[in-house]
Amino acid sequence: MGNKNKLCQHKDIFERMNYLYQASHLMASIDKRTASYFGNNMVGCARKAVLRMEPNLKRSICKCCQTPLIPGETARVRLTSKPVKRVKWTCLTCMNIKRFPTKKGYKLWLDQPAAIIETLDYTPKPKNKNVKKSDAPEKIKEKEVNAKTLENAS
Ligand SMILES: [Zn+2]
Questions:
Q1: How far is the CA of 71 from the centre of ligand 1 (A)?
Q2: Is residue 108 over pLDDT 70?
Q3: What pLDDT is attached to residue 9?
Q4: Among the four 20, 39, 44, 69, which has the fewest Cβ within 10 Å?
């Protein structure tokens, strides 16, 4: 278990980005500025640690103001067919436009099976871990108590 966890580099940053992403989505309907701030923070985290966001995640954020793009709420989604068939996302906060071409049978590199090299399992065993964690401090306390009692005795 311990070795497997060590393999996940920048786990803390990923967790932080996850938190910020969720926070920004929650704030999207309440305050767009705060949502944009959280989104900006998330992108900053990724940039600082040189981590890449998943394309689907990246596409759900405005490239210009980092507000989460929620269709009908913070973004307008339209299908266009003029030059090429594509999906047009308009951010209603900064009016920035993003276009994604829709090609039949096209898959992002990450969605292709060749992109997956190895799958790591990080599912923790909650019951065992909790027992171990709760046991550890008690043992330390016992040791401390023993040491104190020894000191007092001597
Ligand atoms: Zn925007």
A1: 13
A2: yes
A3: 81
A4: 44
Which residues are near ligand 1, the ion (C-beta closer than 5 Å)? 62, 64-65, 91, 93-94, 96
Spell 109-131 as b/e; 16+ CB within 10 A means b.
eeeeeeeeeeeeeeeeeeeeeee
pTM of the model: 0.68
Q: How close is the Cα of 30 to the center of ligand 1, in Å?
A: 16
pLDDT for 21 equals: 93
Cα separation values, 59 from 46, 130, 135, Å: 15, 37, 44
**pLDDT tens-digit map of 40-82:** 999 999 999 998 888 888 999 999 999 999 999 999 999 998 8
CB 100 within 8 Å of CB 87: yes
Give the Å distance between the CA of 73 and the centre of ligand 1.
12
